[in-house]
Amino acid sequence: MLRIALVNMPFADWNRPSFALGQLSTLVNREFDGRARARVCYLNQDLAEYFGTRLYESLSVSHDHVDTGIGDWLFRHLAFPDAPDTATEYFQRYYRGARWEDFRDRILRARDGLHGFCAELIGRYRLDEADIVGFSSMFAQHVPSMALARMIKERNPRTLVVLGGANCEAPMGAVVAEHVPAVDFVFSGPALNTFGQFVQCVLDGEPARADTIPGIISSRNCRDPRFRTAIGAERDIDDYFLPDYAGFFEALDSHPELRRTGTSEPMLFFETSRGCWWGQRSHCTFCGLNGESMAFRAMAPELAVRQFEWLFDFAPAYTSLFCTDNVMPRNYPREVFPRLDPPPGTSIFYEVKLPLSRQDLRAMADAGVTVVQPGIEALASSTLKLMGKGTTAFQNLQFLKNCDEFGITPEWNLLIGFPGEDPAVYRKYAEELGDLVHLVPPHGVYMVRFDRFSPYFKRSGDYGLDLAPVDYYALTYPFDAAALADLAYFFADRNLAPYMLHAVEWHDRLSRLVAEWRAAWYDEPGAPRRELRLVANEDGTTAVRDSRSGTLRVHPVDPATARLLRRLASPARPEQLARDWPQGPDDLRRRLDHLTERRLLFAENGRVMSLVLTGTDGEPDEPPREEPTAAGARRPLPLLTESPR
Questions:
Q1: Which of 65, 219, 608, 610 is deepest in the core (most CB within 10 A)?
Q2: 399 and 374 in contact (C-beta within 8 Å)?
Q3: In a 10 Å sphere around its CB, with 0-12 CB exposed, 13-18 middle and 19+ buried, how is residue 442 labelled?
Q4: Residues 275, 336 contacting (CB under 8 angstroms)
Q5: Which residues contact 367 (CB under 8 A, 6 or more apart)?
Q6: Are 534 and 615 in contact (CB under 8 A)?
Q7: pTM of the predicted model as reported, rounded to 2 decimal places
Q8: CATH top-level class for 532-641?
Q9: Which regions in the chain score pLDDT beneath 70?
Q10: Does domain 267-412 have CATH number 3.40.50.150?
Q11: What's the confidence (pLDDT) of residue 529?
């Protein structure tokens, strides 16, 4: 019996299983039953306890840390023990000053104990007794995997160590095969086919035969262009098998401290598509997802329904479900979601492409899709055009408004610093972000990155970019410049270009505005959520409730203005509206001016749209019910009213 250990290293989130390793485990146990047996080992949970859950969560997901490469750097001394210590240089480049002093001390103390702790984990999981140890590497799992690979090889040189995942797609994987002796084979691109072929080679006693399989790289074939640049053949997405999550559940049961002290809820991964249907038509300029596998493939609706039913069986213990798709299949709101009967409390996450119709959103919400990543990224149509998004600022704002109605939470960031971006966009943001605080805020304001496989990377000359790996690669890997250029996924522009200077100039101001926006949503204990809503009063009149400033103001509106607000749920040009406005163009202009004075409209390129939430199906909401304020309840805002105009 061939013993295979599949290892999930830090800094993978402790609260999520590895979908890739779960699939590989099922593949081995299904196709090699009686000849090979696989198990998934969640060492990331052990390391989360070692670092402390809150610190580990921050290192895993916070932009303060993800953008510094600290997760990989922390394991440099274990992966490359003969290389000089770069701590001084690293902390001169990142985490400088008194603000980070305690953090630096804590990180260095944790680093000092990593060798002993990792050695103990190898023994605990008997990794040095396995015939094959496989690591999946995404984001900051790369050097931790190399470090443990080296320590395993020191104990048992006969163990075959393999590495795969997003960090290994050509040409990145070839650098590992060439420069990291502890890794015997690297899997480039999809591995559901190639890993099975590799296991068969090992069972036949001919592991070196895997050198002839495109998508598998070793120190022997890594310089051959036929293999250095190849990716593995893909398995049909409808040749589906359920991932093995047994190891994840056992790990959670063995680490109750993570649930007690962490801020994250355990969730289960699933997949319903690969690639990106929009990217096939218009590859977003900054997007490096999908690698060389952009072609869109969606799971058949019947299989998707069966997978959801399997996932629903984990309720009530696990009701948070996270889709790994880069984009939701367009037919699912019609052909999959209406067939689902989610258990109470189910929360499904999907990445989506805008625009989405209200009908689609209703189907998604009814099926339990409560969190989405819509790829908003900007609230300026000119910037969205630079990205190749195929959307407008109006569509993004419409989506944020619709999310409020359907109870869907959009996860989004505001990105700045695109080559060619007009600094007038930042001035407009500074003037108008305060008008949007009744909508779900972005996580923050971030400078755009230049990722491998993105158009910015592939056609850097067309955009006037001079790209080089970001600084932490040279501080982490003891490789030469050519190897780092092939290994890196994140790049920076060495030019001091105007687009960069403008973004740096505005970044802190916009970040403060977004921080205030987030504080209005999340950081004011007992405070009601900010509101901008058209409501019907008991006497039949209508009004706009506006608490964006922190003080509730009520603006009475007559039937014509209420009708105008509903019409402007979609953008329109004033001259178009004027042609059909019963009271004539002068009356329309006065009303638009009145709404503009109260900052109830969003305007861009001669079109205007209402920011006011107008309620389901265009009808005003029911008046809010007044209830006694209990201890700990959200306090009412002070109320200011206007006289009707």
A1: 610
A2: yes
A3: buried
A4: no
A5: 336, 337, 338, 340, 342, 348
A6: yes
A7: 0.92
A8: mainly alpha
A9: 291-292, 524-526, 616-645
A10: no
A11: 84
